[in-house]
Write a structure and sequence with these properties.
Length: 396
């Protein structure tokens, strides 16, 4: 039996400039209450001033939500807080996932090389967090000459979407690899209307932290279902990455949605329909009940101001935590893994003197696996090799 932990996560050089220079100077210029402050460098006084909004927004995000989320992005106070603190936090999750699933990203690039156009769609984009992470990742990629980018951002809040577009253009203007090579468009509509607006096929569709904000009523669920159905017909290259918070409610919502894609044949019932985290296309074993499918990856998010804000929130982070599903496109299916491979979906549950137990992902029911204590194993690792499975017909 072999355990494959995730690769160490690194941050491209542009990340440091992005979080420590671009974001603070943008916020200062666009959100300072006094004209005289706007052109001066971001300093400790600014950090104290903007931290109040960060603290308030952080409380709003950590409260257990009951399907109703106030329209926080209508307030400049919360837009600026999100730009300063939540962009680095959420973008780090995308940077992590881009490295965990390097082959999905290679599929996005490969699709772009055919037409010379890399088409990125960001649904519920907010300040284009996921797309900004994408650009920072892209800057570090070899063999991208001749590729130009198109970006379509969708959100119901025009103000934050405008910030997102401006940030995309500012990042692009800074690097020869992107300068004059991005066409950015915003659409102030619900994300499920995107397929009617999008032209042709897209290289990568990103959706971060949106579904947990959807009202839970039959009408919204219907819109969502039909939105995905049409969206999947516009998906190519690296497919569609959906990231949600690591909380039980968000994660189980995502698992149930993933199940429904297969139950209603929106996706072929094959493991090749998903880049991850699942290795099978049958029912998720954690879509209901006390456990849920989420991941925590050891990552130290770089950023001077980010670290200061995290400390002030008593929330210093050595991990990034999230739930996700990454759907593969028809033309670039995910590769099959060995039929004995399993995803570890819990941290060690009980540690005895000699053995510990982890949950493995299997259709319908997780499998409890007892392993010797000396084997290093964590949630999210891939396990491969011979071990007894409860479902001998689960082979690929
Ligand atoms: C937590 S923010 C996430 C922003 C960004 N995707 C990120 O990961 O940082 C959620 C975003 O979803 C947007 N949103 C909520 N309902 C939406 C809908 N029906 N259609 C499009 N956007 C929506 C909100 O306006 C907000 O910008």
């Amino acid at each position: 039996m072999r355990v494959y932990p995730p690769p160490p996560i690194t941050f491209p050089p542009a990340w440091h400039w992005f979080v420590d220079e671009l974001l603070p100077s943008y916020v200062k210029k666009h959100y300072s209450p006094k004209e005289a402050w706007k052109e001066k460098p971001f300093g400790e006084t600014d950090a104290r001033f903007f931290f109040r909004g960060i603290e308030e927004l952080s409380e709003l995000f950590t409260d257990e939500r009951s399907g109703h989320v106030p329209p926080y992005f209508k307030h400049p106070r919360f837009r600026s807080s999100y730009l300063l603190y939540f962009i680095p936090l959420q973008a780090a999750k995308f940077i992590t996932l881009f490295q965990l699933h390097a082959k999905a990203m290679a599929a996005a690039l490969s699709h772009a090389r055919i037409s010379g156009k890399l088409k990125i769609v960001d649904l519920g984009a907010g300040p284009a967090t996921a797309s900004l992470a994408f650009l920072i990742w892209f800057l570090n990629q070899p063999e991208t000459e001749g590729i130009s980018l198109e970006w379509d951002g969708f959100d119901t809040e025009a103000g934050i979407l405008k910030d997102g577009k401006q940030l995309i253009e500012l990042v692009a203007s800074q690097f020869p690899k992107l300068r004059n090579k991005i066409q950015a468009r915003t659409h102030t509509v619900s994300w499920w209307d995107a397929p009617g607006i999008l032209n042709g096929e897209n290289s990568l569709i990103l959706m971060g932290n949106v579904l947990n904000e959807m009202p839970q009523n039959p009408r919204a669920e219907e819109n969502q279902f039909h939105g995905f159905k049409k969206l999947f017909t516009k998906m190519n290259g690296g497919g569609c990455l959906i990231v949600e918070p690591a909380s039980r409610s968000s994660s189980q919502l995502l698992s149930q949605l993933r199940n429904s894609f297969f139950e209603h044949s929106l996706l072929p019932a094959s493991p090749t329909s998903l880049w991850g985290p699942c290795l099978h296309a049958e029912k998720c074993p954690l879509s209901f009940g006390k456990d849920w499918c989420h991941f925590s990856v050891p990552v130290d998010i770089p950023g001077k101001w980010f670290k200061k804000f995290s400390k002030a929130l008593s929330s210093e982070r050595q991990w990034v935590k999230f739930s996700y599903v990454w759907i593969a496109s028809k033309d670039y299916p995910a590769p099959l893994t060995a039929n004995t491979s399993r995803r570890v979906i819990s941290d060690p549950l009980s540690v005895g003197k000699k053995n510990k137990i982890v949950l493995l992902c299997e259709p319908e029911q997780p499998k409890r696996l007892e392993i010797p204590v000396q084997i290093q194993i964590r949630r999210g690792d891939l396990l491969s090799g011979d071990h007894p499975t409860s479902q001998e017909n689960f082979r690929r």
